[in-house]
Amino acid sequence: MKTLTKLFLIFIPVLGLNAQVKTRQYLTDAKLAPRAHNLDFTKLSLVANFEPEKGLIHGKVTEVFTPLQENIHSIVLDAIDMNIAEVKLNGAPVQFKVTKENLTVFIANALHWGEVDSLTITYSAAPKKGLYFVGWNDKTNTSRKQIWSQGQSLDNRCWIPMYDEMNDKVISDIQVSFDKDYKVISNGTLVKKKELGNGEILWHYKMTHPHAPYLIMLAIGKYDRLEEKSSSGIPLNLYYYPEWSNRAHPTYKYSKEMFDFFEKEIGVHYAWESYSQVPVQEFMFGAMENTTATIYGDFFEVDERAYLDKYYVGVNAHELAHQWFGDLVTARSDAHHWLQESFATYYNQLFEAVVNGPDQFAWARRLAQNQALEESAKNNYPVAHSEGGQVRHYPKGAFVLHMLKNVAGGREAYNKAIKAYLEKHKYANVDSHDLLVAFEETLGVSLDWFWEEWVYKGGEPHYKVNFEETADGNQFTVQQVGDLFNMPIQFSVFYTDGTEESKTIYIDKPTEIVTLNSFAKKSIAYVLFDPNNEVLKSVSFNKPLTYLKTQALKAASTLDRYDALVGLREDSLQDKRETLYAAYEKETFHATRNEIINQLIQDKQARSKEIILKAINDKDVMVRKNVIAHLTQPDEMQLEALEKQLPDSSYELTAQVLEKLCAAKPALAPKYLSLVETTDGAVGHNVLAKRLELSYNYLQDKAALAKLVTLATNAYEFRTRMFAMGALKRCDYFDEPFIDALLEGMTSGNSRLNTAAAETLAYFYVQSKNKNLINQHIEGLGDTPWKVKQIRDLLNTTKTL
After folding, report:
1. Cβ–Cβ < 8 Å for 416, 357
2. Which long-range contacts link 449-455 to residues 24+ away (Cβ below 8 Å)?
3. Which helix (DSSP H) or strand (DSSP E) does residue 411 occupy?
4. What's the predicted TM-score (pTM) here?
5. Is 507 helix (H, G, I), strand (E, B) or coil?
6. Is-contact 154 77, C-beta < 8 A?
7. Within 10 Å of residue 739's Cβ, how many Cβ atoms?
8. What percentage of the chain has pLDDT greater than the value 90?
9. What is the pLDDT of residues 88-129, one digit of tens each?
């Protein structure tokens, strides 16, 4: 008997349940309620210019508002570390007070309900967050020079004094003057572009509908643009770096198709006038769904080879979906953040299923359910909680929506309710209850039980399942461990003559017995509890070896075949070898093929070695990456196959194979290194960094170390710097220019870079020969105390990990 442990999710259209909630017990959430505010801001107009070398913005912002309370005697705006020169209320100067975080405006004569008023604020700021000045302090003039914003969660307050919360919406109007050699991009429509005669151009963008303040964006850089148009006539502006014109089409693959798909699937037309996408350097996340203008990390700007390693399609679809979920309707408070991220994740999965097939969609569920269960081992936060975390707000929430689709009656019913939800709350704020009401009012169903189980309560069901043939029929016994959930589960029995029978029932008790007795005397081939893993859960189910072997070869669902293969892991090769061989010939999806490869990779049988060789040359890059990663001591035939794969279409595989070959045949390292001497890799220069590292290790090329130090400086974007830092750490090389590069990286606003720099510096800091030298360089930054503090804090945190 083998224990087959699964983690799952659900899509079963069953409507008859009317479970009612009898008790409620929720975790406290400090951010459940939206922030109180006494004004409704309706318009925000900004006029700005910059001193980029100093990281300065000079602005004048006018904000139009109406009072929400009977008498208003003061106004408090979010304004981080700003120099406020003047404040005018309805055109007249007023008194104000500035603190590190706020601007308070004092009103002599109270403002009242029904009025329309305005504030105009003249200010300057050197923001450390919210607005980022990239490349302007690169002394080598190698880096790109850009200015771009990142407002989420609440960082636009660092460069615009405003009421910066998600529970208010404004129509924004942005005017920026900048060097004529650069393009300026912001939200909405470009209504004016005017040469000023001083080498600058005035760019004027305007929105026509309101959006949350954190979605205001700005991007300045040197760009070219692809122009497309959706089937509904929406202009699509796809920006790219001029010198990377060969990357434009691979990067924006399927962009028009996904736009058309979302309009049709969601059933609500795109609510804005245009849609732009802009790559930026040093971006700390994947992308950000600013209204009408997504900013994304330029590491997604890929050529045909890099597309195999990190394509933009999924992120592209995710951010586009946010134009409906997050931008058109916006969560009222952080407790309902899942209404944005879960929807965007689910819809990007739906689109990827269109272009990559249903197996990839199923595999995304499997990965996410594993993550969800891992998170539940740490804490019990629900999806609708501000501290639920990334896993619950993104993948788990997406699965919840998928289950909702099925318990609500399927795709058409779900889409009808979603359309009603979006149209009712267009350009407004929502919470989780608003979504429930949309389903109840549109479909007439009672789904409060589903919200209680999957939205407001944490955890997932855990089932222990047993199957046996009894005198009464084929019997499943299901025990729920821990909290009880009430979900529809399908039970299926497959017979050796090719017939099958299934039954779907709601499981809501600590112990349930389900009997299938239509063909009680037939010989059983295998059985399934919840085929295709449709319910998010953990399962313990002991199955005989014969059942697992047949399931691995004959189950209709890829996930069911995969689970059977996982269930064979502990069996001897002698007992499962032929099943694995047969399964490999049938399987086309990378996850199932990789599971077979991992079980055969150490086997000395000729057929097993033949399969490993096939895998090295598999057309699926995911299979090639997996088998090469698991080759610990490749034999001569495998090494010969690896040599042929050195110029692989995947940059990641080229770097991986290069390292494997040099380790296996050090004497041939010069040959292998020369074969990739013109290949740098994608954004991140991953092949170049690996080549330099190996050149030092195998050829004692000290010039390679100097080049790696250069790659670690701010002349290069953060991924290149991180690859170089890792290589230098493995080479155990440390010098003063490298110290300066690490310290500069630790003051970056990009947490991935500053964390990597801190971890690298901490590695060398504990070596007594380096400690004093590092401290001297830190003390040399005394004229910028905030940098010293950030470096010390990061270093101390890293050392204690």
Report:
1. no
2. 449/17, 449/19, 449/20, 449/21, 449/486, 450/403, 450/404, 450/407, 452/21, 452/24, 453/485, 453/486, 453/487, 454/383, 454/400, 454/403, 454/404, 455/338, 455/382, 455/383, 455/384, 455/400
3. helix 411-424
4. 0.94
5. strand
6. no
7. 21
8. 89
9. 999 999 999 999 999 999 999 999 998 999 999 999 999 999
Q: Which tokens is 506 given?
A: 């709601």
Compute the distance between CA of residue 762 and CA of residue 59 in angstroms, rounded to an integer: 40
Query: How are beta strands 293-297 and 275-280 bridged, if at all?
Result: parallel
CB 526 within 8 A of CB 548: yes
Q: How far apart are CA 158 and CA 125, in angstroms?
A: 8
Lay out the sheet containing 487-495: strands in order across.
Answer: 500-507, 487-495, 524-529
Cβ distance 749 to 714 under 8 Å? no
pLDDT band at 7 (very low <50, low <70, confident <90, very high): very low
Whether residue 519 has pLDDT greater than 80: no
Tell me the average pLDDT across 304-317.
94
- SS3 of 273-342: the string is CCEEEEEECCCCCCEECCCCEEEEEHHHCCCCCHHHCCCCHHHHHHHHHHCCECCCEEECCHHHCHHHHH
Could you tell me which residues are beta bridge partners of residue 124?
58, 83
- On whether the CB atoms of residues 221 and 182 are closer than 8 A, the answer is yes
The Cα 328–Cα 380 span in angstroms is 30
* H or E, element range at 8: none
**Mean confidence (pLDDT) of the chain:** 93
Tell me what pLDDT residue 23 has: 56
**pLDDT of 330 over the 50 cut:** yes
Contact 167, 186 (CB under 8 A): no
Distances (CA, A) of 200 to 49, 136, 180, 191, 220: 10, 17, 5, 17, 13
Q: Rounded mean pLDDT of 131-147?
A: 96
SS3 650: coil
pLDDT at 123: 98
Residue 109's CB: how many other CB atoms inside 10 A?
7
Measured CA to CA in angstroms, residue 682 lies from 190, 674, 688 at distances of 32, 19, 10
Band (pLDDT 50/70/90 cuts) for residue 520 is: low
Residue 3 has pLDDT above 80, yes or no: no
| DSSP 8-state symbol, 33 | S
Q: Look up residue 115 and give its two tokens.
A: 């009025």
Q: What are phi and psi of 679, to 5 degrees?
A: -105, 120
Q: What angle do CA 456, 462, 468 make, to 5 degrees?
A: 145
Place of tokens 């750490």: 729
- Give 78-136 as a DSSP string: E-SSEEEEEEEETTEE--EEE-SSEEEEEEEEEEETT--EEEEEEEEE--SSSEEEEST
Sequential DSSP letters for 666-722: GGGHHHHHHHTTT---STT-HHHHHHHHHHHHHH--HHHHHHHHHHTSTTS-HHHHH
Cβ atoms of 219 and 295 closer than 8 Å: yes
Paired with 43 in beta bridges are 64, 171
Task: Provide mean pLDDT across the span 539-543.
Answer: 95
Average pLDDT value for residue range 522-531: 95
